């Protein structure tokens, strides 16, 4: 690849980070003017806003009426940990890990909860484990979309309807961007900072009737921290799923979540959001297909993420470099784009192979991704020419 001319057209919004993600188009601080500030989060107006986030989210996601959805502390991580600490231990656990977060959940289950009967199904970055090996009569913990690897499960066909175990799904970069099969999922977690571009801090936890039954019939053998407790005296704390949060929420973040939901409705709800993400990802996929220096980290087309698109550098010159030099080159490419103000925070995740990671979720504009692609070519060619 020879040095190429610096592109003239820049993305209007250079925010392609995979979390926190780009704000919705046209967002400004004015969107938060109606925030319920300086009031107790237990006051009527504040509780109404919290309940509205829950109700609108359930409706837009197409969640079954008998599922519960609650706002919980500590973003998606907190929601996943609540599920692990509160629900696991009744039977053996199968854990799927093909990127950083799945591996983290596996570590928590084995090292912190010290569950002996755990089976780990692991795959390298860019691949999925063999889903047919998973036993859903055991509890199953997995991510729907691997944000750090750009790999997603293609569907829920591998999960039987008559399973005896619970399926616990970290869906933080899939919710509102992919069509989740709710009848196959007993616990689903996500955060506001991903597809809807909300502010961080809070997580969302969805429970099926089967998950609620487990909570009320089984007591874990370990002490559950207060911020993780979903039951009291053996009964579900139902208020959590009406907006009565365990800890004090940021009402600014709540207002931002409501703004994101309002915008999502304006672009066609869930179908509109999925369409935007798929069209955005297609821009990157088409560019990758024409590139001689970059490839998709995800090997199988149907397993490729439409939100967190992860790139590997396939240029022979790059492949001949040492691991340290490959990492350095990848960082220099990302830094060059950051310096030009055309792409922020697109370096590969710290545990992932050297490369780039570009968010293509619904709050990103397709025109901005089209403008970004020539800059990616320019940045790599420039770094390569510098040696």
Mean pLDDT: 97
Uncertain runs are none
Number of domains: 2
Q: Evaluate the radius of gyration.
A: 21 Å
Q: CATH H level of the largest domain: which superfamily?
A: Type I PLP-dependent aspartate aminotransferase-like (Major domain)
Strand content: 5-15%
CATH topology-level fold name of the largest domain:
Aspartate Aminotransferase, domain 2
Number of strands: 14
Principal-axes geometry comes out as globular
**Percent range for helical residues?**
25-40%
General description of the model:
- By secondary structure, this protein is an alpha/beta fold.
- The protein has two domains: 228 residues, Aspartate Aminotransferase, domain 2; 118 residues, Aspartate Aminotransferase, domain 1.
- It is built from nine helices and 14 strands.
- The strands form four sheets. Strands 1-9-8-7-4-2-3 form a seven-stranded mixed β-sheet, sandwiched between helices. Strands 12-13-14 form a three-stranded antiparallel β-sheet.
- A hairpin with a 2-residue loop joins strand 10 and strand 11.
- It is globular.
- The mean pLDDT is 97.
Q: Any descriptors?
A:
single chain, 387 residues, alpha/beta, Aspartate Aminotransferase, domain 2, Aspartate Aminotransferase, domain 1, 2 domains, seven-stranded mixed β-sheet, three-stranded antiparallel β-sheet, 9 helices, 15% strand
Summarize this, please?
This protein is α/β, with parallel strands linked by helices and 387 residues long.
